[in-house]
């Protein structure tokens, strides 16, 4: 076998076609899930458990560049055990959603921002940058192909997971010469089902990212490193872990998969600044714009865990929420650490959190105008 990476179970005898305006050749799935079965799967898909009929795929080889871009049947992949991602973790990913439009069709929310962040992650992990047009084309074509997989209802969306990894079979320590880019699509409901708010555990044991590290990149390694802290949170009866900075161990950074905002009684809100150790969330950025548009003062400034406790206890801090593509906007009800805990507001969704959530979701779902040009409708 000369190939370090092979596609398994490739359907034989399938027709393929190139659409004039797409870089991705379409090879339709010859055995898609039956419509009745799909309808059942879409009733309560949960998060990240159900996948659509197709995936986008493209390969990169040093000296050749990107090639063999196609939308094809979702299938298993057959990898050499020497694939360097399995040893040195050169892997990055993205997360974005497609929403059903009220009048039919689908729309993406700020996909260019994900394309640019994917490139930034690639630079940090010494991987080739996927051209923005290839990223955009892959998600557009996959959504168009699997549009029937968007769950009905106000909570549902099609979560898109673009990712790229080093597929070269080589154990030497250097950046790989071969990569695979794939996009999967997964119909999803809400990430935190049924809970009005989440409880946080402040880990003193673990940090998520250090200056100069990979905190601002969306690479799998960051998440692997956060799982033990998340397990600590669950052991302590909390839903999610919140990380502090790695140097002073006092500045609030973010959750394992979400950014964080604080709401004050003077009508201002604050969020930790982007300093290279937290992910530059697209939801975070959108909320900053929306909140300013609502007349709220928004500060991007460091906020310490001691101050958070003092402000929650004095009533100066009235609400806090987490945000991200998967989590949308989720209220934080309580914070617990080794020094004890404190409650936030009424431990439910406060009015500012609610207003911000509604205004974001209304734009994403086409129920409100899109003054910032964030929506890309797919014909
Ligand atoms: N922070 C981390 C560590 C994340 O994994 C995510 C999710 O993607 C976010 C923040 C929120 O980013 P976004 O709003 O772009 O989804
Ligand atoms: C996302 O929100 O897209 C993420 O990648 C976070 C993850 C916890 C699902």
Describe this structure in words.
With 379 residues, this protein is an alpha+beta fold. It has two domains: 17-188, D-amino Acid Aminotransferase, Chain A, domain 1, CATH 3.30.470; 197-364, D-amino Acid Aminotransferase, subunit A, domain 2 (D-amino Acid Aminotransferase, Chain A, domain 2, Alpha-Beta Barrel), CATH 3.20.10.10. 25% of the residues lie in helices and 30% in strands. It contains eight helices and 21 strands. Strands 2, 3, 4, 5, 7, 8, 9, 10, 11 and 21 form a ten-stranded mixed beta sheet that branches. Strands 12, 13, 14, 15, 16, 17, 18, 19 and 20 form a nine-stranded mixed beta sheet that branches. Strands 1-6 form a two-stranded antiparallel ribbon. A hairpin with a 3-residue loop joins strand 4 and strand 5. It is globular. It starts with a strand and ends with a strand. Residues 1-18 have low confidence and may be disordered. Bound molecules: pyridoxal-5'-phosphate and 2-OXO-4-methylpentanoic acid. The site of pyridoxal-5'-phosphate has 12 residues, from helix 6.
């Amino acid at each position: 076998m000369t190939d370090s990476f092979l596609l398994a179970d490739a359907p034989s005898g399938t027709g393929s076609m190139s659409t004039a305006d797409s870089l991705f050749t379409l090879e339709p799935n010859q055995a898609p899930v039956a419509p009745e079965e799909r309808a059942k799967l879409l009733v309560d898909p949960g998060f990240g458990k159900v996948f659509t009929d197709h995936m986008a795929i493209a390969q990169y080889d040093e000296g050749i560049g990107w090639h063999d871009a196609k939308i094809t049947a979702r299938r298993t992949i057959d990898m050499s055990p020497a694939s360097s991602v399995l040893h040195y973790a050169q892997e990055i990913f993205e997360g974005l959603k497609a929403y059903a439009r009220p009048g039919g069709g689908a729309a993406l929310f700020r996909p260019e921002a994900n394309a640019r962040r994917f490139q930034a992650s690639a630079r940090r992990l010494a991987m080739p940058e996927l051209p923005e047009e290839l990223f955009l084309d892959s998600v557009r074509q996959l959504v168009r192909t699997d549009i029937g997989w968007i769950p009905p209802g106000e909570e549902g969306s099609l979560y898109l997971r673009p990712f790229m990894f080093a597929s070269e079979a080589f154990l030497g320590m250097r950046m790989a010469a071969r990569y695979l880019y794939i996009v999967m699509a997964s119909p999803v409901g809400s990430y935190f089902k049924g809970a009005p708010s989440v409880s946080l555990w402040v880990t003193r044991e673990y940090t998520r990212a250090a200056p100069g590290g990979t905190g601002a990149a969306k690479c799998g390694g960051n998440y692997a490193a956060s799982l033990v802290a998340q397990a600590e949170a669950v052991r302590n009866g909390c839903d999610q872990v919140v990380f502090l900075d790695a140097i002073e161990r006092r500045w609030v950074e973010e959750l394992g998969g979400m950014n964080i905002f604080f709401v004050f009684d003077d009508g201002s809100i604050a969020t930790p600044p982007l300093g290279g150790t937290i992910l530059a969330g697209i939801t975070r950025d959108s909320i900053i714009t929306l909140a300013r548009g609502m007349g709220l003062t928004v500060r991007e400034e460091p906020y310490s865990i001691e101050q958070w406790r003092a402000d929650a206890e004095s009533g100066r801090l009235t609400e806090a929420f987490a945000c991200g593509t998967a989590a949308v906007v989720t209220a934080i009800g309580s914070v617990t650490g080794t020094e004890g805990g404190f409650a936030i507001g009424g431990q439910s969704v406060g009015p500012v959190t609610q207003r911000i959530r509604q205004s974001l979701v209304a734009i994403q779902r086409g129920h409100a105008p899109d003054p910032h040009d964030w929506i890309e409708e797919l014909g």
